[in-house]
Specification:
The chain has 359 residues and is α/β, with parallel strands linked by helices. 29% of the residues lie in helices and 15% in strands. This is DNA (cytosine-5-)-methyltransferase.
Length: 359
């Protein structure tokens, strides 16, 4: 079993990896992703191209014995979130996808890494999931970890997007460490990249519309993946404003081309009734969805991170399901600090708590 004496060995495993946004954030912080898993064939080419040194296991996690997974320093990942989503049926742990959280815990218990990080949607905090959430926390603890969780907004961690997600961080119980999210806020909040102009201004004149039936332009884009979905807008989409200004952060990047935010070149939409908006007919610039590359920039992927797809809807899904790279990086740096400087962290936490009590 690994101990803190093996801190120079930062090999970690990624579960429910998607295209690897969280993985890239941890890699930037000095961790090495040695093994990853996702059974969604739509992401395989994208993941393998951008993470060529990582072994990608393509099997359903439910059939993978823990012994097939290498020993590792840490485990990261975001189990499927649809069953917890506020926009979905919210069946939570009763849904087969919600139960995949238990597969994550199974592997944690068997592998006993020094730490884990799990990410999921804010809907998990809905009151109807209270019992299930407590059961998950209990399962983490029974697996041998001291766990804490908090709702974070990616915009506070150098991501030009309002994106609220619940983050679980746990350390193996024998380390006697418990992650303090107040300490994370104090030490790792960065707001340098906090609006759309900083993120995508230079891309405003070069995007291409998709081909018929939202097929990719592929090699004709000036910048890879810089193409946007075409087609009608649903009544649900038109139920509220979908335009943020250049000086604001983006709305949450969704895993759907139909629900991609509108480019900030256009005027904000006009409310004409309950849950009913229209496009401003006086807008100087036309309304169009953000391109896939613009969404990737807002998710803080670098431009050399390439997305492979034939239909743009698959591309938007790949990008929208990812953890923003910069959020992953901030969390990775914080976790690494906990493991490399535990004494200093404890003193920092005590000083912070004293300050909070005095105020």
């Amino acid at each position: 079993m690994l101990s803190l004496n093996s801190i120079n060995n930062l090999n970690i495993v990624s579960l429910f990896s998607g295209c690897g946004g969280l993985d890239l954030g941890f890699s930037k912080a000095g961790f090495k992703i040695i093994w990853a898993n996702d059974c969604d064939k739509e992401i395989w080419q994208t993941y393998q191209y951008n993470h060529p040194k990582t072994y990608l296991d393509r099997r359903d996690i439910r059939v993978i014995p823990s012994g097939d997974i290498p020993d590792c320093f840490g485990i990261i990942g975001g189990p499927p979130c649809q069953s917890w989503s506020e926009a979905g049926s919210q069946r939570g742990i009763q849904d087969s996808r919600g139960q995949l959280f238990l597969e994550y815990i199974r592997i944690l218990e068997d592998k006993q890494p020094l730490f884990f990080l799990a990410e999921n949607v804010s809907g998990m905090l809905h009151k109807q999931h209270g019992l299930a959430l407590q059961q998950i926390i209990n399962a983490f603890e029974e697996a041998g970890f001291l766990v804490n969780y908090s709702l974070l907004n990616a915009v506070d961690y150098n991501v030009p997007q309002d994106r609220k997600r619940i983050i679980f961080v746990g350390f193996r119980a024998d380390l006697n460490l418990k992650f303090d999210f107040n300490w994370l806020v104090k030490n790792y909040q960065i707001h340098q990249l906090n609006n759309l102009k900083k993120a995508i201004w230079d891309l405003r004149e070069s995007a291409l519309p998709a081909q018929a039936k939202n097929k990719t332009n592929r090699d004709t884009c000036i910048l890879p993946n810089h193409e946007y979905a075409i087609g009608d807008f649903s009544s649900i989409y038109m139920s509220r404003n979908r335009v943020r200004s250049w000086d604001e952060p983006s709305f949450t990047i969704q895993a759907s081309g139909r629900h991609a935010p509108i480019h900030p070149q256009a005027n904000k939409m006009i409310n004409i009734g309950k849950d009913k908006f229209i496009f401003d007919p006086n807008s100087i610039y036309p309304y169009r969805r953000l391109s896939l590359r613009e969404c990737a920039r807002i998710q803080t992927f670098p431009d050399n991170f390439l997305f492979d797809y034939i239909n743009l809807n698959a591309g938007y899904k790949i990008v929208g399901n990812a953890v923003p790279v910069n959020l992953g990086y901030a969390l990775a740096e914080a976790i690494k600090s906990y493991l490399t400087e535990p004494i200093n962290i404890k003193q920092n936490e005590q000083s912070l708590q004293l300050s909070l009590n005095l105020n």
